[in-house]
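REVIEWER CHECKLIST
Item 1: Sequence provided? yes
Item 2: Single chain? yes
Item 3: Sequence as submitted:
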Amino acid sequence: MQNDTKQSEIKEESIAKYTIKDSVFSDLFKSKKYLIQLYKALHPEDTTVTEDELTDITIRNVLTDNLYNDLGFSLGEKFFILVEAQAIWTLNIIIRVLLYLAQTYHDYFERTNQNLYKSKKVKMPKPELYVVYVGNHRNIPDEISLSKEFFGGTDIAIDVKVKVICENESNNIINQYILFSKVYDEQRKKYGRTKKAITETIRICKDRNILREYLEDREKEVVSIMMSLYDEEEIMRSYIKSERYEAAQEAELNKAKKTAIHLLKLRKMSLEDIAEATELPLDTVKELESQSMQLI
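Item 4: Structure as written out by the authors:
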């Protein structure tokens, strides 16, 4: 009965998903209604673009934990735009974006039946690479590059330049997402990774007109996205703990077997006494004795 109550409490409170911001980011821009707002925030000069011109090219791996990115879309044959949401600042994002871009081009050449081994020059959409940074780290540059950050600014065979978008004064969809993430951080500090933190985040954002339409249309889905019984961080901690425990157990077993083999060689104790002294099963001690006899 007590266990049932405890399980019920866990289900009621649950745990907010560790990758909550990325999950909401991906869900938000799956909708072309919001995707076109993102594009117009990046290209306000393009006043004629329509939703139909935007195509989702996000890299997804459903069956394997392999290469995938937060958001990729193309505008006809003109642009590839890859956008990553980053909560913790790391320059390694440049490497990840480079890999995403290479995979995106590979998929594009296959989709358009262009052969890289023929003499005819292939057509390539122009790439644009962005990072939406939602953290609190200050003095983030407007642009980061592979050459500058990893090779001291020297001329290298291939460079990657990534534009960085942080919180600003605008009310566009990108800045609203950043503000949503910051509200969640505040609520998480108050309530932990709980349902309360999520419902308060949604309430506050709707009151402040932050992603209001999206949150009103998809509130249940947003709560579902943000909730998970075990977050990825907890799973990883559990996995590492399990691995360490198994390694320690294996080390103890090997140590006990070595002690048993030494005692067997001395021939001063019965098999039963050796089993008791080493805390090994009697069958294991008998097996070790048999192995020792074969080596003589």
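Item 5: Key structural point noted by reviewer: The first strand starts at residue 15 and ends at 16.
Item 6: Recommendation: ____
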